[in-house]
Amino acid sequence: MKAEGRALADLKVLLAFPPQGHPTQPYLALPSLKAFLAEKGLHDCTVWDLNLEAYDRLVSNERLALSLQRIQGHAQDWGMDDKEQLDPGDLDRFRLYADAMASGPYLATHADKAKEIIRDREAFYDREQYLWAMRTFESGLKLLSTEYYPTLFTAHNYTQSTSIDSSSDLFAGVDNQEENLFAEFFEEEALPRIEKEMPDV
Length: 201
Description:
Elements: E1 2-3, E2 6-7, E3 13-17, H1 29-39, E4 45-49, H2 50-58, H3 61-78, H4 91-119, H5 127-147, E5 152-153, E6 158-159, H6 167-175, H7 183-197
Parallel strand pairs: 3-4
Antiparallel strand pairs: 1-2, 5-6
């Protein structure tokens, strides 16, 4: 088997699972594909779970502190403190900004601890610790969503204002730097590593 005149065994392949999927459910198709390729003679194949890496990077004390700082700037630009009354369409944004100001400082100092509990083989099964950790984790996702409003990022879902019904809408969503919550992660974390890896495929 050959690709572009090269033997399959000579190719360097990178299989990457991008966000967004549930962080507790690894995407098993890629390891299965890697095993299939190895069976066919391609052994230089690497699998990256960029979905899990994105969650880990985004829901962290450092990143949530930055998120809170940016939300404060968005709220100021929006004139949140100067509004004497709100239009019905502004209520959601106002609530999200107000909630972010109230919960953001706590989340920016406790997100890393929440992830430690979720990863700990004993603490994970302690009901009180588990519930606190998962609530903190989900609240961190809500804070990130507020930064990119009206984007909504949860462990089960990801939406922007652009639809997913056509490729042109999808590409518009990718290009929308104000709403694309993952663009910064890809530009700063994923793409430089892919360039360094220099895969053929």
